[in-house]
# Entry
Amino acid sequence: MDNKLPVLLLLIILLLLSGCVGQNSDPQSSSDNGQLNPQAITQTELAEIIREGGDMLLVDVRTEGEYNEGHLPEAIVIPYDEFDTRYSEILEYRDRAVVLYCHVGGMGDYAGRVLLKNGFKNVKNLDGGINGWRNSGGKIV
# Structure
């Protein structure tokens, strides 16, 4: 029994680590559970698109109160917990770029999956969210 314990622990560790590698980094690819995932966009990439006047919609998925405390310029707000029922407000952007952000990225990923599932073609989630944007010197209004 004592000889089996280290082997068992090693197997458990390898199993846990296997969940951290092999993630598909293709934009808007399918995850292991079949869901589509939005492509990540860095603060630098977003700043360049904004500077060039790129045609995109910025969507803050935090609460309206958080949005009112500070958000990226030109962003609209559709709170994360209302996204399933309110995404239709931006259907005109189905074939254009939509960049989502929250605090650090998790809620933006969820909102992005909602959009991709509903036919949106070019959905990105701001890597690091508004916190990363602020920390990189990005403008907040």
